[in-house]
Amino acid sequence: MPSPQSLSEEDRRRVAAWAADCAERVLAVFEAEVPADERARDAIDRARAFARGELAAAGEIRRRFVAGRAAHAAASPAGVAAARAAAQAAGVAHMGAHALGAAAYAARAARLAPSGSDDAAEDELAWQLQRITPDVASALRLLPRLGDDSAGPLGPGLLARGDLGEHIRRIQAALLGTVA
Q1: How far is 115 from 10, CA to CA, in rounded Å?
Q2: Domain extents in the chain
């Protein structure tokens, strides 16, 4: 039985483009630190190609960790978060819940960036929510609430803690019309 965090392939394709948009907003933070490393940009490009139906899920599932390894090349927490946002976007081909991870890491990167501030994460979340189309919102609403499923990205692991967890809770609350 597939995880409720997986989503159908059609829904994963819907949310992949939004996840790529979120990650792309902070890509410059990573690229400023490691300009010759194309893994994060490639992950975002692949997420978009998956969204358009140009790449198969199976191939992307095998490649989903490439951008995550790029985080080790970053020099700052902001650069690490930006690379992880790209990795999460690429991971949507495997599991739709990674779209929320991409958004959360992008908000973290925005806050930690040299030009960032405490308001930067709020601004990033507001931008992300404004760009959720009705189709993407419908797909994201199918995901379990953060922490309700014991396994996968929305389980009790890294995405459920600290600012990442808070960002995801805010997005899910906005999608469901509740208060986080």
Answers
A1: 37
A2: 9-176
